[in-house]
Amino acid sequence: MYPNYWGGTKYNVKQELTKLGYRVHEANVGAFSSNYDRAVELYYYIKGGRVDYGAAHAAKYGHKRYGRTYEGIMPDWEPGKKIHLVGHSMGGQTIRLMEHFLRNGNQEEIDYQRQYGGTVSDLFKGGQDNMVSTITTLGTPHNGTPAADKLGSTKFIKDTINRIGKIGGTNALDLELGFSQWGFKQQPNESYAEYAKRIANSKVWETEDQAVNDLTTAGAEKLNQMTTLNPNIVYTSYTGAATHTGPLGNEVPNIRQFPLFDLTSRVIGGDDNKNVRVNDGIVPVSSSLHPSDEAFKKVGMMNLATDKGIWQVRPVQYDWDHLDLVGLDTTDYKRTGEELGQFYMSMINNMLKVEELDGITRK
Predict the structure, then answer these.
(1) N or C: which end of the chain has fewer CB within 10 A?
(2) Is 233 in contact with 309 (CB distance < 8 Å)?
(3) Can you give the pLDDT at residue 153?
(4) Catalytic annotation on 37?
């Protein structure tokens, strides 16, 4: 739906880095799917094959076990062949969960297979370490966001998102927004009336297996309790802030904050917990720094971040809102494409240093 997600019209990250000889890909996963479904899709996007959400998961939530088929950007991906993963917003959570499954497996799926037979996806078998070199998160709600607690998780918002998915699944639009596993895809010989009736009976209208639940404080905490730091991975976080203290003591949006974030920013800025009020329009600064229960240390913006098994937290980038981190805020002229290019090149240079320390040489 965007001209391109990473960089927008300011700095096409994939295009510019590819010109410089780097192998860069933009993962295509469900926009409104749960972190679980997105983590599975991310694995198959990289590895290739037909998405297998797992028999236990499909039975538990009532959507299809199998999803779309990916060609795969790295079919030979296996332990010892490491990649770098960069996630914006919820993408950072998705990456963490996928890495958890690779390393630790999914016991629920393994137990289900033992009881009922059938197969288990390689993703859920565990024991697959040394497949990820670095994990970098940008504006990720590691500890959730009050915007989801107070707005996103309401039935009205959930129903609105589902209706968007319903429209996206029509033959007229045919958009993959993360609802295909729920049957949101109008069939060739299916009238719109028949399609709408079928979707009205979907379990998606009552499910917790959706993005908005995972973005809440409780949903994020559930993920945090499940995942752990991998001692073989370099973790780095970047955080933006686009508010200032108003006359009543609440945080209010900066003048160049993305206009559509005004409501969510004010909701977060007026939260009873003063520690979460400073935000980037969508995510509290305190949530974006690192998961609350995991080790961290602060690292200067120009310093190398090469330590493994600990979050290396970059300084907060003030006057950067949630979309500035990926160049999608076209209303903010202060955040230029040149600046964004330098921002991403600093990440690349850090990744190259990590590879150098790991003994990896490139031609």
Answers:
(1) C
(2) yes
(3) 67
(4) no
Q: Where would I find the H helices in 126-154?
A: 146-147
Q: Name the catalytic one among 52, 149, 214, 280.
A: 280
pTM for this predicted structure: 0.95
Q: How far apart are CA 40 and CA 30, in angstroms?
A: 10
33, 34, 89, 265: which one is catalytic? 89
DSSP annotation string for 174-204: ---SS-GGGT----TT--HHHHHHHHHT-GG
For residues 294 and 217, is the Cβ–Cβ distance under 8 A?
A: no
pLDDT tier, 157 (very low <50, low <70, confident <90, very high otherwise): confident
| Phi, psi of 70, deg, nearest 5 | -105, 145
The span from the first CA to the last CA of the chain, in angstroms, equals 36
Q: Which residues pair with 138 in a beta bridge?
A: 88, 238
Report strand pairing: 234-238 vs 240-241: unpaired
Question: pLDDT higher for 88 or 176?
Answer: 88
Number of other residues whose CB lies within 10 A of the CB of residue 212 = 19
Element (H, E) at 330: none
**DSSP strands (E only) in the chain:** 49-52, 66-70, 83-88, 132-138, 234-238, 240-241, 243-245, 251-253, 296-298, 311-313, 317-318
**Catalytically annotated residue among 100, 322, 324, 332:** 322
CA contacts within 13 A on the Cβ side of 13: 22
φ, ψ of residue 32 to 5 degrees: the values are: -115, 10
CA dihedral 220, 152, 270, 92 (to 10 degrees): 40
Residue 341 contacts residue 327 (beta carbons within 8 Å): no
Q: How far is CA 189 from CA 170, 176, 195, in A?
A: 12, 19, 10
Q: Which of 240, 227, 234, 233 is nearest to 292 (CA)?
A: 227
Give me the pLDDT at residue 174, please. 83
pLDDT (mean) for 94-100: 98
Compute the distance between CA of residue 194 and CA of residue 94 in angstroms, rounded to an integer.
34
142 carries an active-site annotation? no
